[in-house]
Each structure stands twice: as C-alpha cells, then as structure tokens.
C-alpha cells in the first residue's frame, strides 16, 4: 500500500533481520507511517530476506564480493536504493562499512542501530566486551549515520541489566528485545517528521537533544 502519507523506506540487512521484522510489524500495525519499498542484503542467505518476502516486500541481493572495491559496491547499492525513491535508509544489522559518498548522499536520512550504550563499545562483539568490562548495565542505541563508525548523533537508547549468569548470547537476546522497541519508534518519529538532523544536532519535535532520549523516559512521546 502506498499513498502520499507514507514515507518510502529501504532497509539494508546482512543477517537474521529480527529488527527488520519489528519494523515490518510496526508498518503493518500502521504505527509507522512508512512503506518498506525494498529490503536489500549483501548476503544471499540472510534470513531477513525470507521475512521480507513473506510480507510481500521486494528483495534484492547485492553481494559485495562481486565488486572490485568498496566504492563500486556502494555505487551499485546507492543506485538501487535511489531507484526506490527512498526518503529514509534503515540499516538493520547491515555489516558493511559505507563510503563517504554513500553517507553524504543520505546525510540526515540514514539510521543505524547498535547493540551497546554508545559511545561505549563501538564496533563488534559488544556483548562480550560489556561482560569482560564487568559493566552492570548494557543496552542499545539508534543514531543517524555519519562518517564516524558507530559515532553519529544519538537519538535514543534503552538499557538492560547485566545479570550474574549472563553469557554473550543471553545478553544479546535481552538487548534485542529493546532494539525491537527503539528502532520502530525512531523510524516512526522520522516518518512523522518529528526527527531531524541539522548541522550535526538531532532535533525531536523541534527541540535540540542534548543527549539521547532514554526509552525509560518516553511515555507516549
Ligand atoms: C543487532 O544486534 C543490531 O543492533 C546490530 O546487528 C544485529 C542485527 O540483528 N547492528 P537482526 O539481524 O536485526 O536480528
């Protein structure tokens, strides 16, 4: 379904796509006034592709291994995203570093979710690292994508406790339940025009954020 009230979205994935599923569900409930025009994966066997197909969403595979370099891969990816007239690009477990050109093209129109309380634990293996650091709390963050890896302006975070018996898998599962709340919420806000990035500052409902919104503080925001 497409009408002038829905924002065209493209979601990029590499794997399981549980965050994609949360977005699909939120669109189907009409919580998100958006339309997922396509799901693009760099991995042909990403389970998220099946999730999209089940919901009748077009899918594409652009395998980075078929390109000589990052620029050429990103160029092909950008062309495909633009063919859907995407107004927002949602990275949902997309495991490729993007080029400057790609990031500039979608400046202020590209979101990422990261499984840690940024700026703590940028990069990979965040759950293992949080356990090794002896942290008591862990969580996830949604941010606008900039050329700083996992360093773009933060929108919202959610926290979970780290329990004595946790291993990386149990902790990841607890964090994911929060990811599935804060990512659809962020996309919902963006589609409603309530979220804006201007000169490196995030505005929510017209007000600049001095730090990330905490899920715990959002009651019917
Ligand atoms: C999530 O933990 C997300 O934060 C990270 O990659 C994982 C993707 O999981 N960027 P899924 O594919 O959405 O299930």
Report on the structure:
The chain is of the alpha/beta class and 221 residues long. Helices cover 32% and strands 25% of the residues. It has helices at residues 18-28, 47-54, 70-83, 100-105, 126-132, 168-191, and strands spanning 7-13, 34-41, 59-61, 88-91, 110-114, 137-144, 154-161, 195-198, 201-204, 207-208, 213-214. The strands form 2 sheets. Strands 3-2-1-4-5-6-7-11 form an 8-stranded mixed β-sheet, covered by helices on one side. It has a 3-stranded antiparallel β-sheet with strand order 8-9-10. The mean pLDDT is 96. Bound molecules: 5-O-phosphono-beta-D-ribofuranosylamine. 5-O-phosphono-beta-D-ribofuranosylamine (GRF) is lined by residues 13, 15-19, 48, 92-93, 113-115, 140, 176, 179.
SS-based class: alpha/beta
Strand content: 15-25%
Mean pLDDT: 96
Distance between the termini: 26 Å
Largest sheet: 8 strands, mixed
Helix content: 25-40%
User: SSE order in H/E notation?
Assistant: EHEHEHEHEHEEHEEEE
Gross morphology is globular
* Contiguous runs where pLDDT drops below 50 for at least 5 residues: none
Query: In which order are the strands of the major sheet placed?
Result: 3-2-1-4-5-6-7-11
Q: Which molecules are bound in this entry?
A: 5-O-phosphono-beta-D-ribofuranosylamine
